[in-house]
Give the backbone structure.
Amino acid sequence: MHKRPSIQVYPSILSGDFGRLAEEARRLQVAGADAIHVDIMDGQFVQNLTFGPKALEAINRATPLFLDVHLMIYNPYPYIETFVKAGADRITFHFEATEDVEDTIEFIRKCGVKAGVAFRPETSFSFVVKYLELCDLVLLMTVNPGFGGQPFMPEVLEKVKLARQYCERHSLGTHIQVDGGIDLQTGAQCIEAGADVLVSGDYLFRRATDLKQGISELKRLI
């Protein structure tokens, strides 16, 4: 599998300082992030609680960066407009969290933003393939969603490869995003498999020597 021509790095602000969200957002902009990944968790679909619309508004006021909002909540449809108004530029929701996947994609687009569909590591690729032509991005989780700092799950790489092969075979511009345990080693594996958007939290905020250098090194993996 050849490497993709353009890699984007989306730092996950979930790993940042919750008490300084605006400052963290500005720091990511200066460091060269392509976008900010914002995880919204409801304590039910995943056993964690994170940001709400007010936090997203604060991040949006602090930076012009693209805001990539990842909803890890059940029944996301009623919350779409709220997060769009709060500043989301793309909303990605989980296939496993709703029975109305296509209606939710359509509604996100009607609200004027990009739409993505996320998949847990255990979800079969047979479900993923259906949505590669219907949304702007698919997110293949490389950890179980809910908490940062988990180890990367290499078994997801096969689904990344299959998604890239399908997109190339059908001339699709759908982005393939990975999220969970992404560092220089696992990021390189994901890019080689066909991912073109890397979400990284724990590595960039806690383990990289410098935020700007960490982002630059991930981009140079191509």
